Amino acid sequence: MKNKFFGLILVLFLFFSLNVFAVTSVEQVNDFNIYRAFPGKAVFGEEIWMLLLIENNSSATQSIKLTELLIDCDFNKDSAVSIDFNHGTEWNYFWDLTVPANESVTLTYWFKPKSIGSFIVPSMKTEIDSKIIYLESQLIEIECNNDLKCDLSAGENYLNCLDCSTGLNDGICDFESDGKCDSDCETGIDADCIELNEPETIAPQNEEIIAVDSVPQNNELIIAIGLFAVLLILIIAVFAFKKLKEKFK
Ligand SMILES: [Ca+2]
Ligand SMILES: [Ca+2]
Ligand SMILES: [Ca+2]
Is CATH 2.60.40.10 correct for 4-143? Predict the structure, then answer.
C-alpha cells in the first residue's frame, strides 16, 4: 500500500523512463481513478510490464476487484489464477483490493505476446459493490526480434523483419527474381515459378526429335523400292535372254 503522492510519482517515473513510446491511460470508476502505464512498442520475446495505480478519491475506505484477462500471451502462472469452462481454461491476473480514503495502490505485472503485430491488451474488468465496469482495451505494437533468425511461427516475414529472406512461405508474395519460387504468389506473379514450369512447354523440341526419327524410316522404304526395282529388271533381263536364245537355236 502506498500513499497517493508516491503512486503518482511512480506513474510519472514509469512514463518517462520506460521509453519514448510509453502510454498512460486513466479512467474514472466511481470514486477511483485507475491509471494504466505500459510501453506502446515492444520487441517480440521480451516481457511487457504493466503498471496500475488505483487511486481512491473518496473520504472513506473502499474496495475494488480487478481482473486482467490473459489471452495469446505467456505470463507468470505463479501470480495468475485459472477458471475452467466447457470450452477450455481461462487465465487472468486478479486483485481484490481495499484502498483507504485518499490513498492509492500500485500494482505491476507482465506478459509476453505470442506473435508480432498489434497486440490487444483486453478490457480490464473492475468490480465495485457487485457493479461491473470494463476499462478500454489497449494496443501494443510487437516488433520483430532482430536475432538473425526468421521466426515464421511468431509472424515474422519478409516485410516486417530483416531476418527473413525472399521466397519464404511466410504469407507474403515478394515476387523477387531470386531463383526461388515464392509459394505465396498467384500463378504467373513470380517469374521464378514460371521458369520451374518450363519442362511442360518444350513441345517443339520433342517434335524435332520425332522428325529426326522419321528420316531412317523413309530411307528404308526408298532402299526397299530400289532393291525391288533392280530385282524386277534382273528377272525381265533373264526372261528376255532366254527368249533370244530360243529364237537363235
Ligand atoms: Ca527474428
Ligand atoms: Ca513468401
Ligand atoms: Ca522468387
Answer: yes
